[in-house]
């Protein structure tokens, strides 16, 4: 098969180092012409994938779980390129009296929407770790969700009217806290956890959970036509990640002056490769987010790891 005869595999990705070798051409596929397009704005990439502009995409796990439990024709490969600890994504005003999670009970929290994976993780962690249930907080969403979900009994979710970012509205006093997937640019805001990195490192040591927000999802129609695409794309992501880890190890690659110390610190806590792909080794994080999705009303029916992910694992080194 010549290069011109190879089928095109169009892929939308996030704009980050794990995907960069896919869209800068360093990693290619043997039997497919990979056309990877990065999106700095995740939502736009998700929308274009759902609209049919891409055969596969790096996609929100909260949305994927919700859609898959409703029978949508999608299937994920176990590639998890967007992972973040989420304790550090709870924000309050600098002058807020709130200092610890238990104080969120009875308070108003601004969120982008219920089907936001950052919020899904935070709500689950607040319940598991601190005894703060979703029903204990008055949730105020900037947007409605396009899929109806069955919220847990007693949950208060209000759709906001008006304009302005959640951070700006926090500063105006409309909320007591916000939970957002990106760091606010506005001054006058601080994290609820004053030493969130220490809290997150302790969380990881105790649970071995490195929360994942995205997986790589195929349209099932594409896989029906090209079933070998799943394993080939998985292997391409694996190669891209290895290159990204090599870049991280190069002290001259980053713009950060103390990047080597950060690299050493992360390895001491999480080992040489916390960005593990494949089902094996990710069972706990996946079962946890599936449980959170069920507890928070996202799932129309029960789903398992086997329902959600093709059984592919990284090559043994």
Query: What do we call the CATH topology of the largest domain?
Result: D-Maltodextrin-Binding Protein, domain 2
Largest sheet: 6 strands, mixed
Helix content: 25-40%
The gross shape turns out to be globular
CATH architecture of the largest domain: 3-Layer(aba) Sandwich
Instruction: Report the portion of residues in β strands.
Output: 15-25%
What count of domains describes the coordinates?
2
CA-CA gap between termini: 30 Å
- Sheet/helix structural class: alpha/beta
What is the alpha-carbon Rg in Å?
A: 20 Å
Number of strand elements = 11
CATH class of the largest domain: Alpha Beta
Average pLDDT confidence is 95
Low-confidence stretches: none
CATH superfamily of the largest domain, called what? Periplasmic binding protein-like II
Number of helices: 11
Helix and strand pattern = EHEHEHEEEHEEHEEHEHHHHH
Would you mind describing this structure in some detail?
- The radius of gyration is 20 Å and the shape is globular.
- The mean pLDDT is 95.
- It contains eleven helices and eleven strands.
- With 317 residues, it is an alpha/beta fold.
- A six-stranded mixed beta sheet has the order 8-7-6-9-5-10.
- It has two domains: 3-83 and 212-308, 3-Layer(aba) Sandwich (D-Maltodextrin-Binding Protein, domain 2), CATH 3.40.190; 87-207, Periplasmic binding protein-like II (D-Maltodextrin-Binding Protein, domain 2, 3-Layer(aba) Sandwich).
- It has helices at residues 20-23, 42-50, 61-68, 117-130, 166-171, 196-207, 220-225, 229-249, 259-270, 283-295, 305-308; strands at 8-14, 33-39, 56-60, 74-77, 90-93, 108-111, 138-141, 156-159, 177-179, 189-191, 214-219.
